[in-house]
Amino acid sequence: MSPEARQHYEVNPPAALLEVEQTRARWFSGLIELTKPRLSFLSVITALVAYLAAQPGRDFWNLFNFLCGTALSAGGAAALNQWLERHTDAVMKRTRDRPLPTGLVTPAHAFGWGLLLSSVGVSQLWLGTNSLAGMLGLGTIVSYVCIYTPLKRRSRWATELGAVSGALPPLIGWAAAEGSISTLGWILFGVLFFWQIPHFMAIAWVYRKDYAAVSFPMLSVTDPDGGRVALWSMINAILLIAVSLLPTLLGFTSIIYLMAAAALGLWFLLSAGRFMKEAGRDSAARRLFLTTIAYLPLVLAILVLDRWLA
């Protein structure tokens, strides 16, 4: 091929080649989407908060392996979750545009991708930090994929069991930093656990018709007027605030953190209180969801700053 012809080919590639490249790009973006980047990022952040709160030494490779291992484990679990739920995802409006229902990624590729990410992630945690962090990473994946995901079709308590999986990343972070888990690490686990219930109750209420369409026996489906959904959200919000104050009461943080956590907790409770009112419950659920999104990073950031500046 002459230089002129080669240049023309590179500037104006055949349409078939362009289509292949675009298909590959869409397929790769589908693989990335399978990892639920936003949810996985939240897992990494909560794990990092615990890692920093433990005030570890400056070991770059420990931090690198911890972050990569946590991210890969979270992404792998998300991909395997979507592989298991591909049939129900195709029915629900909220999830029907995901890579598997649309056919962007095949089930075999999704399963292999999830298994690969999970295996590499757990191995990196185990070998790059310590065995406890690796076991917690494995436990997170197993509890999320093998317990929570299938239980969503059978039990109203699947949300609470799923909250256990979602609260494990801080323990991974603490274990990676210290090789063990101290009291403050368990407190962070409690914060994440109780935070998730109001967060997911708000989501479940907004999308209750979707969950009913696939016969998920969630509380928002079995409670038509939403009274029990709102009450359960309030109970867990109160427990969340109580646990969030423990770091200062047990001497891990200063009075500054206590005041900030109390103020944020009051804001959270007011939002949960609005959800308790039957009138305007749909809009209150959306507001509670947004409140949960803002509350968590704020209270965790203040805790870490208080620990490092004390």
Structural descriptors:
globular, mainly alpha, 17 helices
State the distance separating the first and last CA atoms.
69 Å
Global morphology: globular
Oligomer: single chain
Q: What's the helix count?
A: 17
Instruction: Give the helix level as a range of percent.
Output: over 70%
Strand content: under 5%
Largest sheet entry: none
Question: Which class best fits the helix and strand makeup?
Answer: mainly alpha
Radius of gyration over all CA atoms, rounded: 22 Å
Mean pLDDT across all residues, rounded?
91
Low-confidence stretches: none
Can you count the beta strands? 0
SSE arrangement:
Elements: H1 3-11, H2 15-34, H3 37-53, H4 60-84, H5 86-89, H6 99-102, H7 107-128, H8 131-151, H9 158-167, H10 169-178, H11 183-206, H12 208-213, H13 219-222, H14 227-244, H15 246-249, H16 255-276, H17 281-309
In words, what does this structure look like?
This protein is mainly α. Helices cover 80% and strands 0% of the residues.
Short description:
By secondary structure, this protein is an all-alpha fold. The protein contains 17 helices and no strands.
